[in-house]
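I hope you will forgive my troubling you with a question about protein structure. I am sending you one protein, given as its amino acid sequence and as whole-number tokens for its backbone shapes. Thank you for your consideration; the sequence and its tokens are set out here:
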Amino acid sequence: MSDRRTFLAAVTALASAAFSGRAAMAASGPLPAKRESSVNDYYGTKVSDPYQWMEDGKNPDLLPWIKAQDAYTRDVLAKIPGIEALRARVSELSGDLSVTRTVAVAGARLFFEQLPAGAQNYKLFMKEGSSPPRTLVDPTLLTLAGAHVSLDWWEPSSDGKHVAYGLSPAGSEASTTHVMAVDTGRILDERIPNTDWGITGWLPDSSGFFYIQFIGQRGSPDFYWDSVVKLHILGADPSTDRVVLRRGLYPQIPMTKVQAGVVRPILGTDQSVVMVVDVRPERTVWTVRTADLLGSQPPRFRPVASIEDLVVGVAATGDDLFLLSNRDAPRGRVLVTSVTNPSLSKATEVLAQSTTVAEAIYPLQTGALVRLMDGGVQRLARVHRDGRSAAIKLPFEGAVDRVFTSEQRDDAYAALAGWLEPPAIWHLGADGGVRDTHLSARPPFDLSPYVAERRLARARDGTQIPYTIVARRAGGPT
């Protein structure tokens, strides 16, 4: 379910298309894009891409073509009858909305990424106690190689004293890692390029972090091949960062060139989860003592799951390793085993397959949080090692877009949205209570006269098909 800003933008585009036929006929045609002979070989399949030259931001033909497209589009839109009134109304409904998309709690600090009302780019903020939020990273004030900057990803250390984040120029997503000391706002000297996928986890003592780095030639088909996982210690020269996982490094960890490794420390312990992932949702999983990855002897990896075990989600907390598996359960079930002595054959089932679909799992201090799909509506449930589970009563039915948890806390945050509820960040208390954080402002219009009613229609084969009617409370569907 998209946010209201996206929805209104889509409405504007549809309205423009409906009204612009005559205007487009009158306007001169746009500058055609040049075509070049470019063929890429993807694992033996040759794919022609005549517009690949557009991926090179320095190509002298790119900017003139973009400017010509922009001028043509503006000319066509300006001739649509009533366009200014439509723009004013869309701006009235959406321009004053702030959108918060990611949050994280570290120590006593709440970090959150937000698109403030009227802003053109997301910014990173930090709030502590009752103090007002402080801006940590504002990409609109930064440039890289003379180009505008985007904030790609970020993750605070567990003590909240540092935050690692990725910046890329000109919408390229070619991320370079930066590190900030949160207390002072000082940016540390280290810069780590080619970290488009960010870091995979901080060390429990917050002295450094593991990260994925790409080593191929950017812009080539093999850029993402043979990525490496490294450990960076704060203050060290990134060129000396140790490689802890790559293809061929350990015979116990088989990898192909298109797969990536992940090392995720389990906070509060001396253990880490190691995974090998690719485009498939399933992953292979091991556990290992974190210090063994840094020693002179080969680490002792403990196998947890092979690709045939169909594990699609992992959540580790303490010595509990919760696994979301689709093996013999296409709608998903949750198992728990030991981090230090894992065994799928002896794992305990803590959430059985049901009529809902288990989509994702997240760690909590005393268990895990599971996101479920129930006929188009997403729900949340808590599970515990002893098999106890409890549904979380959400304030309305709709989408659970993102969930933010930590293995060191029993509360959590979730991005919720409904047919009549704008996207917002809600706090999920350890006691089961759910409240709006008010990080995102409410829209300047009243939707209380409307109601969203979910119903089921029976298909000819007996399948129950869910649908939702949005209607005025006192009348029929609108």
User: Anything to note?
Assistant: The two ends are 19 Å apart (CA to CA).
